[in-house]
Design a protein that fits this description.
Rossmann fold, single chain, Ado_hCys_hydrolase_NAD-bd, eight-stranded mixed sheet, cytoplasm, about 475 residues, alpha/beta
Length: about 475
Amino acid sequence: MNLFDNTPFLVADPDLADWGRKEIVIAEKEMPGLMAIRRKYGDSKPLKGARITGSLHMTIQTAVLIETLVELGADVRWASCNIFSTQDHAAAAVAARGIPVFAWKGESLTEYWECTFRALKHRESGPHLIVDDGGDASLLVHKGLEMEKGDKWVDTSSDSEEEDIIKKLLKKVRMEDDHFWRRVTESLQGISEETTTGVNRLYRMAREKTLLVPAINVNDSVTKSKFDNKYGCRESLADGIKRATDVMIAGKTVVICGFGDVGKGCAESMRGLGAKVIINEIDPICALQAAMAGYVVKPIEDSLKEGDIFVTATGNRDIIRLEHMMKMKDHAICCNIGHFDNEIQISRLKAMEGVERTEVKPQVDLYTFPDGHSIFILAEGRLVNLGCATGHPSFVMSCSFSNQVLAQMDLWERGKERDVSVYTLPRKLDEEVAALHLEHLGVKLSKLNEEQAEYIGVTVDGPFKPGHYRY
């Protein structure tokens, strides 16, 4: 495949566009935040002239985000941020509108990174802005520029198959155009990042003085992390597990690795379905929260003989290791709901001598060990809610994606003026995003009077909490 050709889109089946369009219309009714932003800013086109690259799950909900950015004037190109998360009918519907999208469910890793490159390759040069989820588009840009400046990372040995594929892609681009990444970064003026893992990458680059442009941490907007991460996972985890396995969760023991916002939502979901829930934690604050919420808290090593279902939700690597899987119950289910696939040591499992893999159906694999016991791995250790189901419901994604649009507007208007650092959106905007979703749920707010507002040191219209307040 020629990376520099002018292929307008790459999707699994363009004939799925009509189906995708029907679901997009339904989703719009459940995404009041994005639709309100369209009504407010559609005429003024605040993103007019902005070239935007998106690297974010190509789902029906993301289609509504993409078309909102276009409605506000942007020129958008898109790729998914996970090889299994694309909904092919959503991708087809977006492509049918003339929006370049490069995504299909079941991409190889090589195809995935080539699609990310294509999304970055705007006609004029590169994007002005990036909507990122996990930091892969940002990583390509930064590593590409470092390579063109003489850095030798691409020539070093790789820790994983995926890292090796990234290096090969960068070398291939250099052979075609050894100034490509310089041109991309000359136009780039901002990044907005959707998820915890990607935000961690941005803060690390900011500390190391390698971040190229200002970035907005969308993940830590309250209406993202306290809603998408918690309430979204509370519904979509069970959806993914049940679509994959049809297992009865009531009465089972579910081990949740991590009790951050994602872990909290997962634990509530499993307990609500009647499971006994065990939490693994390293953080004493999160561990205390879990204990006071009534969960058993102990290390994974002490949970292996009890657990029927294991869920990683930490954002860290090597949480469930090969030696853990070797000691699990027969037919235990292992899955991950953190952004990357290295929370479960899938590569070591595949490489173990004597282990047999049986594909039950796409994204459901049964691994049998030499001693005869077997475990299920869902979505090859990638996001189970998107690999085995369709991700979070539209309503909660409206909260997250409203923040993404506001962040893109901010970066387009002020990105060139900002110092290179990682920012968050103001609390006032957080409250506005929440307010856009209340009427849809039949919620009516109480109102402060002037005396009450003065007493607590706020205005009657907010913001109602200081920036340091933790919801």
